[in-house]
Design brief:
This protein has 442 residues and is of the alpha+beta class. The chain folds into two domains: 2-108 and 175-276, Helix Hairpins; 326-439, endopeptidase fold (from Nostoc punctiforme) (Alpha-Beta Complex). 67% of the residues lie in helices and 7% in strands. It has six helices and eight strands. The strands form two sheets. It has a six-stranded antiparallel beta sheet. Strand 4 and strand 5 form a beta hairpin. The protein is rod-shaped.
């Protein structure tokens, strides 16, 4: 009977073992596939994070360039206003010049008429004729004195009008030069505006491309996530099947053990009854055979989870302060007058733009200033133009200069040859709209 019970139990264990072995093989296969999908998902998320960081940097660059474009457009508008004002001043000066020239010519014609009259009425003998006719020396001297005074008046008036004409002509020439400088700055700003617009179009296209790549990567990540979810569900199903199979195996083993126990009980009772009948005096006994329970191990699956960590990048800046006098700043800047202007240039001798010129002049004395003209409008502290001192920075729209005193500035003006452009001295600091005056030296 024991052999039968052991054979039945062994058959149950073998069948269950085959089922469990197949389940374990399938579970290993799914876990391997799940691990591969998780690795792909991790790599995809890392790629998305990298592309998002690159796109954010690109968007920050686009934002900065858009602000720069707005500043250039504003500078062009201000330059247009300044050019219009110069044209009005030039027109007024031309009218003043025409009036001065007409007055000069009128005075000259009147003087010629008086001289002609003297000559036509006696020429070089007129004075003698006047003396003979008058006969009175004092009266004659009075006429001669009046004539001399008239001559002196004519001479002084003519010289005065000539001076007015010359001064008016010089003013017109200065206004024309200032207008030309403003037009040159406007042309350079127009060129920068076009370059910025082309660069922004390129950067926006790159940003759109990042958007497409990120969307595709997110779609792939969703697919990998779904695959991992499917694998988890299949592993859960295998686990449930394993638990059900173990429960069934234990139930069958328990039923077989119960059946064997009942059979052994019946056999013992029959044997006892047979011995009682044959001997009548045999000692009663009962044999109990208890089969061994069979147990098995259970296993569980493991689920992986993806974590994404963000890094925070912080940056800082520093500035330094030096010591100098405003006049020392001006004297050092004047050493470079005549050198060329180059947009974006940083060489005081071979080519430099307006903001780099101011930055490097101050750097020579240990002062740290921003690179761009717009940023330099926030350097130091603001003072009024009426209180401007040598060494102060005069800030215009898209342009900066160093104040020399007496209404003069030294600056890297424009790309025209010197003296129309380059590093030069301009006599009128207010030749275009002044946005701010900054004092760096306390």
């Amino acid at each position: 009977m024991k052999k039968k019970f052991l054979a039945l139990t062994l058959a149950i264990l073998i069948g269950s073992s085959q089922i469990l072995t197949a389940s374990a093989a399938r579970e290993d296969e799914i876990n391997q596939s799940k691990q591969e999908a998780q690795s792909e998902l991790d790599a995809t998320y890392a790629k998305i994070q990298s592309m998002e960081a690159e796109q954010q940097a690109l968007l920050s660059e686009i934002d900065a360039k858009e602000q720069e474009l707005v500043q250039i457009i504003a500078a062009i508008d201000l330059l247009n206003n300044d050019i219009a004002n110069k044209e009005t001043q030039i027109a007024e000066t031309q009218e003043d010049l025409a009036a001065a020239e007409a007055e000069r010519d009128q005075q000259y014609e009147a003087m010629k008429t008086r001289i002609q009259y003297l000559y036509e009425n006696g020429g070089s003998d007129a004075w003698a004729q006047m003396l003979l006719e008058d006969g009175d020396l004092s009266n004659f001297l009075s006429k001669a004195e009046n004539t001399q005074q008239l001559y002196e008046y004519d001479k002084e008036s003519r010289e005065n009008f000539i001076s007015i004409v010359n001064e008016t002509q010089e003013l017109e020439n200065q206004l024309e030069a200032e207008k030309g400088e403003l037009e040159g700055m406007k042309q350079e700003n127009e060129t920068q505006k076009q370059q910025l617009e082309e660069l922004l179009a390129q950067k926006r296209a790159e940003s759109d491309d990042y958007e497409t790549q990120i969307a595709n990567a997110e779609s792939m990540a969703a697919e990998y996530t779904q695959m991992i979810q499917d694998y988890n569900e299949e592993l859960q199903k295998i686990e449930e099947e394993r638990q059900a199979e173990e429960a069934r195996k234990q139930a069958e083993a328990e039923a077989a053990r119960q059946q064997a126990a009942e059979a052994a009980q019946r056999q013992a009772e029959a044997q006892q009854e047979e011995e009682t009948e044959s001997s009548g005096s045999r000692e009663n006994y009962t044999s109990v055979n208890t089969p061994v329970e069979d147990t098995s191990d259970t296993s569980s699956g493991q689920d992986d989870t993806y974590y994404e960590e963000e890094e925070e990048d912080t940056t800082g800046g520093s500035s330094s302060q030096g010591s100098a006098t405003g006049q020392a700043i001006v004297n050092y800047a004047l050493q470079f007058v005549g050198n060329p202007y180059v947009y974006g240039g940083t060489s005081l001798t071979n080519g430099i733009d307006c903001s780099a010129f101011v930055q490097q002049i101050y750097a020579h004395f240990g002062y740290s200033l921003p690179r761009t003209s717009s940023a330099q409008r926030s350097a130091g502290r603001a003072v009024s133009y009426a209180d401007a001192q040598p060494g102060d920075i005069i800030c215009y729209s898209g342009h900066v200069a160093i104040y020399m005193g007496g209404g003069q500035i030294v600056h890297a003006s424009n790309s025209a040859p010197y003296p129309q452009g380059g590093i030069k001295v301009s006599p009128n600091a207010a030749y275009q709209t002044i946005l701010s005056v900054r004092r760096i030296i306390n």
